[in-house]
Write a structure and sequence with these properties.
This protein has 10 helices and no strands. By secondary structure, the chain is an all-alpha fold.
Length: 205
Amino acid sequence: MNAARALLGIHVPGTTVWHRMGVGWKYLVFLALTLPAVFGGPLVVLAALVLTLALVATTRAPLRLAWGMPVALVVLFALVAGYHVFFGEPVMAVKVVGTTLAALYAGRLILITTPMPVLIDALVAAVGPLRRFGANPERFGLAVAVLVRSIPYVIASFGEVRDAARARGVDRNPLASVTPVVVQAVAYARTTGDALMARGLGDDD
């Protein structure tokens, strides 16, 4: 399982209630799981996280996909939690890490049970009323699709650059890892933009 799948999750076909549920209802479930964690205390955060993990498991996706997490992200969460605990703020550690994890797994509940084109179509339909104010819902959907497609590329770039830096013995230098990723991301963005322009998708109406 690559890093992108471990972070975001990927659609797993199935017949569970989550797969049959409309996208709009799934977004409401997402809000119902994350908002209490955002505004509640540490016990509410932990309860929301446990409930979210349990619901993700009911999608019947392999647990390594449903619950899995990239090692780098686990280390990051541990460092964030440790930072707050070190400075005498254990409650904040639970709030920050727990809320982030609850939101991540609640998002996975949607991504695992819904094909990406369906999600994009739902977003386009949701912003449809803004058309009267000059917005272009189709371009918004295209932008979201490009963004989602770009995330795995950037994650993969981090992994490749990190391995190359380790092979050269400069993995302890942050610039050795960050700079090449930024350059690759900019190049990828320009290539994508040129491809869209060539198809007339970047022109103003």
